[in-house]
UniProtKB/TrEMBL annotation, chains A, B:
Keyword Repeat in annotation: no
Residue intervals of the Aminoacyl-transfer RNA synthetases class-II family profile domain: 118-413
Protein name per the record: asparagine--tRNA ligase
Keywords, alphabetical: Aminoacyl-tRNA synthetase, ATP-binding, Ligase, Nucleotide-binding, Protein biosynthesis
GO cellular component, one term: mitochondrion
E.C. no: 6.1.1.22
Source organism (scientific name): Mugilogobius chulae
GO terms, molecular function: asparagine-tRNA ligase activity; ATP binding; nucleic acid binding
């Protein structure tokens, strides 16, 4: 049975107990004020207070969630964060200025439980000072004591030491014990860049997962993280986000909502090259197979995919660092690596399966003259090696993407970049 | 009415509804199995699951907490973390091997609400790379790009840059907007030490509070933090802690319990010097007023105070950095600074009121030849200056203290110290 309601496009029908099933966007419109309605969705926050349990339900019809108030007298199960629920109740005006309407629950059904421990990643502090050079790039900061060292030793650490460019190799060590690990900490690049998306000191979320066999497994975790973090920030830090979306970057809220609406596109690097080659755009940098994607290419690809996030997978083997897993394909020869490109920012995340096969890894390190330096890393493949992979996300770039901030220096309190280290 | 129960020292008396009031330690002993009992205490964890809300109550009679199961059918208010509660219920055997007994709640009364937002400290990422030298010590790491710089500029940042030794000065900036702020991140000392309590890279929790007027206000927050974090870790990470307390450092659990039992002692530096002078101990370092406290002195003071944590306040003005607040006392001349010494570790925390008076701060910086370097810091006293203070706690030393681990290199996955930067 359909009910047509003035000004509402949603579909309504009667469900058990003469309660009308409505979408969250409808419930928030207030058209059903005072009615007995049923909403379905996922729990986005839970807060217990005095005699009531408060939680927010979101079903994707609106970025805003509906607050549900469940009295402790209620003869229903209590939902946990992330669980799928069906809630029947009465739509009331909210006394709180932040939300016009709220649902006073009469019945709560847990449709799908959510026990977040199952996805449990263990947080690890990876070191800032390291004797490795993970990316093999030259953009490193060296670290040395300002005090003169012993005559024999020229270095405080006896070896040259650098600021970390990534915690990945250390995470790989620890993932051999905890399976799923992550780090959230500062990383450094001595890039002589004044660009609006580079810092000399920035934060990265990096994750590493044992028993991971495909790039799709990585994209799934990356996309899940982007979605769940974004939804969490939008609900838990609504005031802070609104400050930007209302006063600094009006209109950006719609961009964020659009990003969350559809599943992210996945294209291969080879597809990306085809798209670039077929375009009428006048690129400065070459678009031949084997060339690295430049900012102008990233921008075009994001635009081509509807101004939405897009994963690019399976990059040329020669473009990726020694640890990226060889796809052993022909004739193109790619590695199982993936980048996530997002509107306004370009590359937000980069990840790969790691080469877990000792012979292939050893051959590549040997060719690069790094076999001795990374003997400890080779040992990880000698003892209990498993297929594994991981990724890193630039935290300040994520904030740019979420808030619509053009310059990365505006999303960190004390930005460090070439020729600038204020305070 | 008193009931004497074999093997129990606690006092019992009947309360409303013929429920017997028992302490948590008694409840956990199982002597009241099947009885209708009432416990009083503070909520140490809350977890909602399916049809039940689980929470742990602790009343200080035991370090272990009692698990309470509250059905969602229960006509009672739901407690939040930290609130004081009185719970009536039936003591049952627990199906879970981790706890022998649990309380099935029949009635819950919130005695004192707890809204943790009120103590809200805002987390800030203070930078790792800085052009300051906060402590004025020489034990710094300098940072420089490995790539050659422009001919004009010898430094990547145009100025010499260092790894931070403390986020304090940056926190002071931000505390001028958020009042109460903290940072948790890596800090660095180029100390040429192989000691069991020094690292070249370690983590600090640092807090800064505007509108703070006395050292006692600081000790209160420091002690509260130590207690609440310890209780949280002991309850939320019980398995991890038990691994150490059972297999690595047996007997240490009692030391931790003893630390939590009594309020921490507070003595002044001058009192500390008196205690050292009166002791029969044969100290290597001098114990004259004005001398810094050495490890041997810290050890003795902790022992003297019952092998329990002890605050030492009001250090000689000349021993403390430029930002420490002048007590303007005579004839001793002290600064409003405080250290927390703990068993086995020695100095765990250090803090001070900060000199908020422009004229005094300027005079001191001028005398040290640092007036120009810290002109931005002086500006903080020119515009909206408030009495404020803060402290830092060494995170790895805290872990040593909690777990009873002798060597600091055993509580961090990748220790960095002089002549060692493995992996």
């Amino acid at each position: 049975m359909f009910l047509s309601t003035h000004g509402l496009t949603g579909i309504r029908y009667y469900c058990k107990n003469t309660s009308t099933k409505v979408r969250i966007s409808e419930a928030l419109s207030g058209a059903s004020l005072g009615a007995d309605v049923t909403v379905q969705g996922w729990v986005r926050s839970v807060r217990s207070q005095k005699e009531n349990l408060f939680f927010h339900v979101n079903d994707g019809s609106s970025l805003q969630s509906l607050q549900v108030i469940a009295s402790s007298n209620l003869n229903s199960t209590l939902p946990t964060y992330g669980s799928a629920v069906e809630v029947r109740g009465i739509l009331k005006k909210s006394p709180h200025p932040k939300q016009p309407f709220e649902l006073e629950a009469k019945e709560i059904e847990i449709v799908g439980e959510c026990n977040p421990v199952e996805h449990g990643f263990v947080q690890i502090h990876t070191p800032v000072i390291t004797s490795n050079d993970c990316e093999g790039a030259g953009e490193l900061f060296q670290v040395e004591s300002t005090c003169p060292q012993d005559s024999e030793d020229h270095n405080f650490f006896s070896v040259p030491a650098y600021l970390t460019v990534s915690g990945q190799l250390h995470l790989e060590v620890i993932s051999g014990a905890f399976s799923r690990v992550y780090t959230f900490g500062p990383t450094f690049r001595a890039e002589n860049s004044q660009s609006r998306r580079h810092l000399a000191e920035f934060y990265m979320v990096e994750a590493e997962m044992s028993f991971t066999q495909s790039v799709e497994d990585l994209t799934k975790v990356m996309e899940d993280m982007f979605r769940s973090v974004t939804e969490l920030v939008l609900t838990q830090c609504a005031e802070d986000v609104d400050l930007f979306h209302k006063h600094v970057t009006p209109g950006h809220r719609e961009n964020v909502e659009a990003m969350l609406k559809k599943k992210f596109t996945i294209i291969s690097y080879s597809d990306a090259i085809d798209i670039l080659k077929r375009s009428s755009e006048d690129f400065v940098f070459p678009t031949d197979w084997g060339c690295d994607l430049q900012t102008e290419h990233e921008k075009y690809l994001v635009k081509h995919c509807g101004n939405l996030p897009v994963f690019v997978t399976d990059y040329p083997y020669d473009l990726k660092p020694f640890y990226a897993r060889d796809n052993q394909d022909h004739p193109q020869h790619t590695a199982a690596a993936v980048d996530l490109l997002v509107p306004g920012v370009g590359e937000l995340c980069g990840g790969s399966l790691r080469e877990e096969r000792l012979d292939l890894l050893m051959a590549r390190l040997e060719a690069a003259g790094l076999k001795d330096t990374y003997s400890w890393y080779l040992d990880l493949r000698r003892f209990g090696s498993v297929p594994h992979g991981g990724f890193g996300m630039g935290f300040e770039r994520y904030l740019q993407c979420l808030l619509g901030i053009d310059n990365i220096k505006d999303v960190i309190p004390f930005p460090r970049f070439s020729h600038s280290c204020l305070l």
